[in-house]
Design brief:
The complex is a heterodimer of chains A (about 450) and B (about 200).
Chain A lengths: L2 H18 L3 E5 L5 E4 L1 H7 L3 H4 L4 H4 L5 H14 L3 E3 L25 E8 L8 E8 L1 H88 L7 H14 L1 H33 L7 E3 L1 H11 L1 H4 L3 E6 L6 E3 L1 H18 L7 E10 L2 E8 L6 H6 L17 H11 L3 E7 L3 E9 L9
Parallel strand pairs in A: 7-9
Antiparallel strand pairs in A: 1-2, 1-5, 3-4, 4-5, 6-8, 9-10, 10-12, 11-12
Helix pairs in contact in A: 6-8, 6-13, 8-9, 9-11, 11-13
Chain B lengths: L7 H26 L3 E3 L3 E6 L3 H9 L3 E11 L3 E10 L1 H7 L8 H26 L4 E3 L3 E8 L13 E11 L4 E10 L3 H14 L1
Helix pairs in contact in B: 1-4, 1-5
The chains are: A alpha+beta (about 450), B alpha+beta (about 200).
Bound molecules: adenosine-5'-triphosphate (ATP) and magnesium ion.
Amino acid sequence: MTLPAAAATSSALLESLVERIDVGVFAVDRAGTVALWNRFMAVHSGKSSTAMLGQNLFAMFPELPRAWLEKKLESVFVLGNSAFTLWELRPYLFRFPHDRPITRGLDAMRQNVTFLPLRVAGGEISLVCGTIFDYTETAIAQCRLHEAIAALNTEKAAQGVLIGKLEAAQNQLLQSEKMASIGQLAAGVAHEINNPVGFVNSNLQSLKKYCEQMLHLITTYQAAEAQIADSELLARIAGLKQTLDIDFLQEDLPELIRESEDGLLRIKKIVEDLKDFSHVDESEWQYADLNAGLDSTLNVVWSEVKYKATVDKNYGQLPAVECLAAQLNQVFMNLIVNAAQAVDESRGMGSVTLSTGHQDEWVWVEVRDNGCGMSEDVKRRIFEPFFTTKPVGKGTGLGMSVSYNIVEKHHGRIEIDSHPGQGSRFRVWLPVSQPAATEP
Amino acid sequence: MTMDFISDDQREALQEVANIGMGQAGASIAQVLGEFVELSVPQIRAVDAAEIPAALVALAGDGIASAVRQAFLGELRGEAIVIFSEHSAHDLAELMSYGDALDAPASRELLLDISNVLVGACLGGIAELLRAEIGFSAPSLLADQVSTHQLLQAEAIAARCALLVEVRFGLERRVFRCHLIILMAEDAVAALQRALDRFIEEL
Ligand SMILES: Nc1ncnc2c1ncn2[C@@H]1O[C@H](COP(=O)(O)OP(=O)(O)OP(=O)(O)O)[C@@H](O)[C@H]1O
Ligand SMILES: [Mg+2]
C-alpha cells in the first residue's frame, strides 16, 4: 500500500469508528453549527446526521439550556481544556429515551458528557466535540442502592422503636410477675389463714357463751355465800377471791373476749383486702369501685406508712370504672409508698392525703404528700425505667414506669405537680369506660 | 520542611512559570467569566502529608467552606483542590449563565464548573509553558459546606509529602474568594523537575 493510501485507510477506519462507537459523539463550531453527528446521536435523537450537519445545534434542539451550554462551549474554546457534566448533578444534556421501555427504568437516559477541544488544523481550536456516555444502568443501580439504604434505615428506626417497646414490656412483665407472685402468695396465705381463723372464731363464740354462763353461775353462787355457815370454808373462799382478784377477773373476761373478737375481725378484713388487692382470680377488665381499691391498697401498705405519715382521705362519689383493678391497685400502691418514702422523718410525722373525684367521663385519684418534692430533672425522668434517687436496695426505680404503662393501658394519664421542699401531688386520670377498640 | 526534593534553580523556575501562567490564566478566565479576576502571586512550598489539612485551614481560615478536587494527568500528575471560602451562588450563577432557579444539584454543578475553569486555566497555562502534555479528570465535590477543619482528613491522604502551589482568586465586583491548591506527590515531582530543567535550558 502506498503512503497516501495507508493514510486514507486509517482515516476511513477512524471515521467508521467514530460513527459506530457506542458513545454519543458530536461537534460544533464556535457559532454552534453542527460539524459531526455520529450514529449513536442519530439513533437516540431520531435526527439523522444528514438532517443535523450544517444546522445550528440550538435551532435543532430548542429545549437545550442555551445560555449555560454556550458559556460552557465558550470556556472550552477559550481555555482549550475539557469541560464536563455529570449525571448526578445534571441528569442529561439531550433528553434521550432510555433503552428500557419494557423493564423498569428511568424517565430518560442518564448522561455524563465531556466537551473536548478539537484543533483541526493544528492551530486554533475550531471545534468542540461532545462525547455522551450512557450512565442509565449506573443510575438505576444507584437509585436501587439508595432505596435499599432508605428501607434499611426505616427498618432500623422501626426496630429501635420496637426495642424500646420490648424493654418497657419486659420491665412491666418483671413487675407484674413480681406482683403476680406476691398476689398468689398473699392469696395462698389468706386462704390458709381463713380456716384457722374460722374455727378460732367459732370456738371463741362458744367460749364467750360458756364464759357468760360460768360467770352467771358464779354470781349466783356469790349471792348464796351468806348462807354458808362453815367459817373455815368461808375463809377459804375469801382467800381465793383475794388471790384470784375475782372482781377484776369478772370484769376483764368479757373484755378480753371482745378484744379477741375485734382482732379476729381485723384478721378477716386483712385477708379480704389481700384477696381484693391481688385479684388473683380476676385479670379481666371489669367495672370496679376505685375508692374501695384505694382502701384495700392502703391496708396492704399500712405498715410502710403508719410510722411516717398520717393519712387523710377525701373521697368523692365515683361511678364504677372499667379497669384492671389489680393493676390499678399496683399504681395506687406505688404512689402511696413513694409518698410515704418522700416524707422527711426528721421533721416529724408527714401527711399523705388520698383524694378522688369525678368529672364528666373521667375520674381521678390523687395522692398528695408534704415530703421532699422533686426537681425539674427528677420530674423529667420519673417515668424512666430504673430511674431512682433512692439508695441501693431501697428503690428499683420501676414503680413509676410500671405505673405509667398501666395508666397508659387504661388510656389515662398521670399529672404531676411537685416542687422541691414543698411536697408532690400525683393525680391519675382515668376514663370511666374504655374506648371501644380496647382489647382486654 | 525544606524544599529538599527540588533544587533552588528549579524552584525559581517554577515560581516564574507559575507567575507567567497565572497572568495568562487571569486573562483567559476574565474572557470566560466576562469579569476582571484578581489573582495572588502563587506561593510554593513543600509539605508533609500530615500538614496538608492544617495548611488548607491556614489558607481558607476558620469557617465553613466547600471544596472541589480535580486530577490532572499526563506528563505532570497531581490533584488540584479549589476551596470556596466565600461565595455568592447567585453571583457565580450569573457569571456561568445559569438560570435563576438554582436548586441543590445545580449549585453543586456550578462549583464544579467554576473549578474546571480555574484549574484548567491555571494548570493548562503552566503545562503549556513547560510544554508538558496534560489532561484533566472530571471535577468532583470533595466537601460541601463543612468546617474548614474537615475539608480533608490526614488519613485520607495517600502521599507522604507533596509540593503545594497556592493561588488566591477574587472577583472585583462580586462576593467571591477561593483558593486553588495544586498538590503533586513526591514521586510525581521528578517529572516536574525534568520539565523545569528543560524550561531552564531553553531560556
Ligand atoms: N412522691 C414523691 N416525692 C418525691 N420524689 C418522688 C415521689 N415519687 C417518686 N419520686 C421520685 O421518682 C423516683 C422514681 O420513682 P419510682 O417509684 O419509679 O422508683 P423508686 O420509688 O425509686 O423505686 P421502686 O421501684 O421501689 O418504686 C424516685 O426515686 C424519687 O426520686
Ligand atoms: Mg416507688
